[in-house]
Write a structure and sequence with these properties.
This protein has about 350 residues and is an alpha+beta fold. It contains eleven helices and 14 strands. The protein has a single domain, classed as B-lactam Antibiotic, Isopenicillin N Synthase, Chain (Jelly Rolls, Sandwich), CATH 2.60.120. The strands form three sheets. The chain has an eight-stranded mixed β-sheet with strand order 2-3-11-8-13-6-5-4. A four-stranded antiparallel β-sheet has the order 7-12-9-10, with no helix packed on it. Strands 1-14 form a two-stranded parallel ribbon. A hairpin with a 5-residue loop joins β9 and β10. α10 packs across α11. The chain is globular. The N and C termini lie far apart (about 45 Å). The N terminus is likely disordered. It comes from Exidia glandulosa HHB12029. This is Clavaminate synthase-like protein. Pfam families: 2OG-FeII_Oxy, DIOX_N.
């Protein structure tokens, strides 16, 4: 009788690793040993000492975020995502229905591109369009600061792609084919998580939802800077662990698309924001370098065998339904619809109802 070869099991972890980014040049052997454990077994890490992400630069950004969200509600609503078919601008996450509700408000960005025509497919109109920028007279440095950050994030992502290729024994440009070449496309937002209230302190299960538990379904890598702690990851035993607050640090995690590309060798880990950990206003700015929407993600040949992958927790049912949609373009549109149900139900009623019937929203 032929025995089936079993998948490998990832090592469990009790803390999120912190890796000195400069080790990549100073001590590559030590760097890639740490990076391998972080990406294959944890799915999360915090980089320290990344040039351009110094603590002073991050504090300037968070000071601007404090100014942005401190404006009157009417001012913020005038820049709301309901005004944008590509869902750029301000929104209140604590008013979202269902699991995407978060005890927070946010301001969303993407690549600054012209809006597609009315005849364009819904998924393209959701992904492409201009940003909504506050008037320069209100926030004079805002646009320049954010574009500087986006440029530095882009450079970091290019470097990380090469480092990941090294781990996977791919050519240094082995991931390039999955990213657009004509434009730099990305998704980003400034998040303002509201602080804990006295009533919330009574929570009995140790958790108050700042952001629901999830894995990133449509990304390769997510990078994030944070003003204070609050992010948690779930280890393989089911315990929730705090992501450490490192001044000048950048949190990075694997998304489900890169996990799929590597046949599960790299792991996308469940994470959440716990408001019980947030005693003061918390600001974060995540960034995702967008992959080509039209390119289907399949395991690379060397990772197509189940024996090459490690066992991981299955995605939640809605994510599983989303990932089962065969057309990557339509799937990307439904993924975006699910994040902003109130706005997209009005802007895209037909497609929203279709997503609802499929059990995605």
């Amino acid at each position: 009788m032929v025995q089936r070869r079993r998948r490998r099991t990832e090592a469990d972890f009790e803390e999120v690793p912190v890796i000195d980014f400069t080790l990549a040049e100073r001590d590559p052997e030590a760097y890639y040993k740490q990076l391998r454990f972080a990406l294959e077994d944890v799915g999360f890490l915090v980089f320290s000492n990344i040039p351009g992400f110094e603590d002073g630069f991050q504090k300037e950004l968070f000071a601007t975020a404090t100014d942005l969200f401190g404006r009157p509600q009417e001012w913020k609503d005038a820049l709301g995502t309901a005004n944008s078919h590509s869902l750029r601008g301000y929104f209140r996450a604590d008013t979202l229905p269902g699991p995407h509700k978060a005890y927070a408000e946010a301001y969303r960005f993407g690549a600054d591109l012209p809006a597609p025509g009315e005849d364009a497919p819904f998924w393209l109109r959701l992904h492409e369009g201009p940003n909504q920028w506050p008037a320069a007279s209100d926030l004079p440095q805002f646009r320049e600061q954010m574009n500087t950050l986006f440029s530095r994030y882009h450079a970091l992502n290019l470097a990380l792609n090469q480092h990941i290729c090294h781990l996977l024994d791919l050519p240094s440009d082995g991931l390039d084919e999955f990213f657009p070449t004509k434009t730099i496309e990305y998704n980003s937002a400034i998040w303002h998580y509201f602080p804990l209230t006295p009533e919330m302190k009574k929570a009995e299960n140790g958790f108050v939802q700042g952001m629901h538990e999830h894995r990133d379904p449509s990304t390769f890598v997510t990078c994030l800077i944070q003003s204070r702690a609050g992010l948690q990851v779930q280890n393989h035993a089911g315990r929730w662990l705090d992501v450490p607050m490192v001044p000048g640090g950048v949190v990075c995690n694997i998304g489900m698309q890169l996990m799929k590309l590597t046949g599960g060798k790299l792991v996308a880990t469940t994470h959440r924001v716990n408001t019980l950990k947030i005693s003061q206003d918390r600001f974060t700015i995540p960034y995702v370098l967008s992959t080509r929407l039209e390119k289907e993600i399949r395991p690379l040949p060397q990772f197509a065998s189940p024996t090459a992958a490690k066992e991981h927790v299955a995605p939640n049912p809605k994510i599983a339904k989303l990932m089962s949609i065969p057309d990557p373009l339509v799937r990307s549109g439904y993924a975006r619809l699910s994040l902003f149900p109130a706005a997209t139900a009005k802007l895209y009623p037909k497609e929203f109802e279709e997503a609802h019937q499929l059990g995605i929203v």
